[in-house]
Amino acid sequence: MESVKLFGTWFSPYSRRVEMALKLKGVEYEYIEEDLKNKSPDLLKYNPVHKKVPLLIHNGKPISESLVILEYIDETWPGPAILPSDPYERSMARFWAKFLDEKCWPAMRRACLSRGDQEQEKANEEANEVVMFLENEVKGNKLFCGDTIGLVDIAANLIAHWYGIFEEFYGNMQPPLNLITKDKFPNICEWVDEYTNCTFVKENLPEKDKLAQLYMARIQAAKAAAQ
Amino acid sequence: MESVKLFGTWFSPYSRRVEMALKLKGVEYEYIEEDLKNKSPDLLKYNPVHKKVPLLIHNGKPISESLVILEYIDETWPGPAILPSDPYERSMARFWAKFLDEKCWPAMRRACLSRGDQEQEKANEEANEVVMFLENEVKGNKLFCGDTIGLVDIAANLIAHWYGIFEEFYGNMQPPLNLITKDKFPNICEWVDEYTNCTFVKENLPEKDKLAQLYMARIQAAKAAAQ
């Protein structure tokens, strides 16, 4: 009998990507919620390199790194395709997913976390420049890679859902950061609206209130530790 | 008629990966050497996001990011497979290639560039820990992913060929760094020997002397600028 286990945390966009892909394919799986402050022996054993979620174990074989897992899921189970079939379109999907993780999110995160006028201005400028590439990419596409949910849409969950709350708590500065606005990035805003209102997507995102409570608790813990 | 253009620089391990893959597949291509101090309008036009080599243009369509390009090449042209056919083996190849670029090389680089006893010791320790994952992975494999040159071997060119020269110039400290030694990492050393002595691989690596001259010139330029 097939065994599919996913080790994740409810608040991780990377875990949620894998859940979304498994559900898209209709794969039944056992979900194990990890306590990242007290990682399970299985997580440490099966992902010794990164010691991180998500970790997928399929018939005893472990795979980590969310984008690697997404491709594995697409190649292993039938159902709606996560990557396009055309090699060039596939390469573009891989390119943009990589861009989101390696360039876009880090720049957006820096814009929220940087302090001091000069550093903040520089980080903000860089984030705007990077996000503009997404703005141009999403233009005219109903979703990033076509009419159905694909690799880039799944990977962009952290921009669409997590970023707003992250900015609310960590980018809380004067004047407010407001990185993603309708006047600057209308296409992204439209995509975020459509994406987060899609019933299937919505079911696979954590509640905003719960995420907000998590960030709030983290900020308070950091403040208490600094005192 | 098919048109394949590669924008690269002779000293970039990332460009060399693409060259190696194209040659492995027997694809004829036009190579354009980029001057990174004076980037060509084509590079800036076709890779606006990263403005970096390698950039492959196939029948007018641009692709960047070496690992993305390698998968594209594998999916587009017949010839020896770059990725294994089994989905799990494919995911492992992707995992280790990503590991090399995102974890292994940065740790090895930091070990060379960090200064000051404490910082240096920490960076050295981290690099040893990370490289040990490779040591265990390469154990028993003639090449990383089997008996033929595959994605991980191609991606590992920077560890096998570039790192030694990089350490010689940038990790020149007392006591010497000597990160990769036969007593600590016998499997890696054996793999490096075999890999860099393979005729096909050798033809696709820059000469060590030329690389050494490049690093030397860069170090001298940095010193002159700091004076």
UniProtKB/TrEMBL annotation, chains A, B:
Q: Name one GO molecular function term.
A: glutathione transferase activity
Q: Does the keyword Disulfide bond apply?
A: no
Q: Which reaction does it catalyse?
A: RX + glutathione = an S-substituted glutathione + a halide anion + H(+)
Q: Which residues form a coiled coil?
A: none
Q: What's the EC number here?
A: 2.5.1.18
Q: Keywords in UniProt for this one?
A: Transferase
- Keyword Transport listed? The answer is no
Q: Where is the GST N-terminal domain?
A: 2-81
InterPro entries recorded: Glutathione-S-Trfase_C-like, Glutathione-S-Trfase_C_sf, Glutathione_S-Trfase, Glutathione_S-Trfase_N, GST_C, GST_C_Tau, Omega/Tau-like, Thioredoxin-like_sf
Domain GST C-terminal positions:
86-214
Q: Which Pfam families match?
A: GST_C, GST_N
Q: Which SUPFAM superfamilies match?
A: GST C-terminal domain-like (SSF47616), Thioredoxin-like (SSF52833)
Q: Which family does it belong to?
A: Belongs to the GST superfamily.
Q: Which PANTHER family match?
A: GLUTATHIONE S-TRANSFERASE U8, GLUTATHIONE S-TRANSFERASE, GST, SUPERFAMILY, GST DOMAIN CONTAINING
Q: What is this protein called?
A: glutathione transferase
